[in-house]
Amino acid sequence: MSDSPVTWDDAADGVLRVTLARPPANALGPPLIEGLDAALDAAAARGTRVLVLTSAIPGFFVAGADIKHLGAVDAASFTAYGDRLRAVVERLAAADLVSIAAIEGVALGGGLELAMAATMRVAGADARCGLPEARLGLIPGAGGTQRLPRLVGRGRAIDIMATARQVPAAEAAAIGLVDRLVEAGAACDAALELAGTLAASSRPALAAVVRTVDAASDRPLAEGLRYEVAQIQELFEHGEATEGITAFLEKRPPEFAR
Question: Considering the entire predicted model, what is its pTM?
Fold first, then answer.
């Protein structure tokens, strides 16, 4: 792990902190992509409930794709790079855990796409977010055109992508692009505090919350309500709800098995 730009450690019970450190700007080149994939392997092996994604590079969460790398590849290599980046972004989005992106500095292009693939986003007051690919004659290619409108709405998403502007943290919080806004420099600590709170819940219940909320964006209301009932029933059948209710009645912390 020492040679990788991505490292991880157990920040608390059930919480894995994943730190990105690829100077000068955490560009999403192959080393960072491979490191993220390895970190997700580690999270799966540990049974992590909550993953916090943070940066050790001052002023940058992730600056975006590795433009120097892209400038030196042919069309086939460009396609392979895009496929690899999309795979790790989608793996984060689909992981059976809650993920929190702690954003300080800039999160641009693929960096913002990575953050949007996380379950939640906590941003420092100096953070800036954007999808500037239009200036390069491209569009976001790792989920940005799909996740941004789901978070902020169609009009705002087109505004942000077409103008290639950087959205200040306060605006990002106001439009729902980030979920919590904290003092500059405090995003990682705030994300870890939130992660500790979330990790006290059962892992299946956390996953069910995310699945059921996500279902609301692509299902009719009646179908979503049926899906909600199915998720509740499954939690009862696997004993998570029984333990949670029993612990509440006995005035003790729950001891969830999973």
Answer: 0.90
Q: One of 35, 64, 110, 143 is an active-site residue; which one?
A: 110
Q: Pick the catalytic residue: 113, 118, 124, 191? A: 113
Q: Which of 43, 101, 123, 133 is catalytic?
A: 133
Contact yes or no for 55/21 (Cβ under 8 A): yes
pLDDT means per 10 residues, the chain with 258 residues, are 84 94 93 96 94 97 79 76 92 94 97 97 98 91 95 97 97 98 97 94 86 88 92 81 81 76
**133 belongs to the catalytic site:** yes
Q: Would you identify the CATH topology of the domain 203-249? A: Lyase 2-enoyl-coa Hydratase; Chain  A, domain 2 (1.10.12)
Query: Which residue is catalytic, options 11, 42, 63, 65?
Result: 65
